[in-house]
Design goal:
The radius of gyration is 19 Å and the shape is elongated. It has helices at about 5-10, 20-30, 55-60, 75-90, 120-150, 160-170, 180-209; strands spanning about 20, 35-45, 45-55, 95-100, 105-115. The chain has seven helices and five strands; from the N terminus they run αβαββααββααα.
């Protein structure tokens, strides 16, 4: 039995609807690019997870520029693009729904549902789908950042991409971060866009095969 399946099984014994799994999910699935804001077992066969991206993680920190609500932020790219990819990849594989909300921060809302009852391995199905989705998300974040690290144009610039994208989103970067000139920033953002497009194209091609 997987760790997540054990967590879900234990939650069945909690009284009342809408069992809160937030802390357990935070311990399992928080990364530098995403943070579990809320995880709730709606029924014994369905779970809704609300996930903040890096803009939510960085929200308490100092900023030198604030964009208008509704604008996606560069700092969210390592989490947002893989989130879109897992939604596209898993909608027919146990994910009931996936949506992205953008206000002052970016949130991803994922709904998971098993067609099986608890007595017919429904919890195992739920745990397997959620574990697979979160693993894919982490792997594709690493693929995206690894693509940039190996990029023939900017790969030898030794950029900390999370810190660079945080600065492009208006957050004050760490003192150790070496800022880029305007032209280099344009090039770096352009290569980030190309890496993101390549990841999504790869996922879409897998879905069509």
């Amino acid at each position: 039995m997987s760790r997540l399946e054990q967590i879900l099984e234990a939650s069945i014994d909690q009284e009342g609807p809408g069992k809160d799994l937030t802390i357990a999910f935070q311990m399992e699935y928080n990364t530098p690019d995403r943070s579990i804001l809320r995880a709730r077992m709606v029924t014994d066969q369905s779970i809704i997870v609300t996930i903040g991206l890096r803009s939510a993680i960085l929200e308490p920190f100092e900023r030198f520029h604030i964009l208008s609500d509704g604008e996606f932020l560069a700092c969210d790219i390592p989490g947002l693009i893989p989130a879109v990819a897992v939604i596209l990849r898993n909608q027919s594989r146990g994910m009931a729904a996936g949506t992205i909300e953008r206000n002052s921060t970016t949130r991803v809302i994922l709904a998971f549902e098993s067609k099986k009852s608890v007595n017919a391995n429904g919890l195992r199905d739920l745990a397997s789908t959620i574990t697979c989705t979160m693993r894919q998300w982490s792997e594709w974040s690493n693929v995206l950042l690894g693509t940039l690290d190996r990029d023939p144009v900017v790969g030898d610039w030794e950029i900390d991409w999370r810190e660079f994208l945080a600065g492009e989103a208006g957050f004050v970067t760490m003192p150790w971060f070496r800022s880029l000139g305007f032209q280099d920033r344009k090039i770096a953002l352009s290569r980030t866009k190309l890496a993101a497009e390549a990841l999504l194209i790869s996922v879409l091609n897998r879905n069509s095969s």
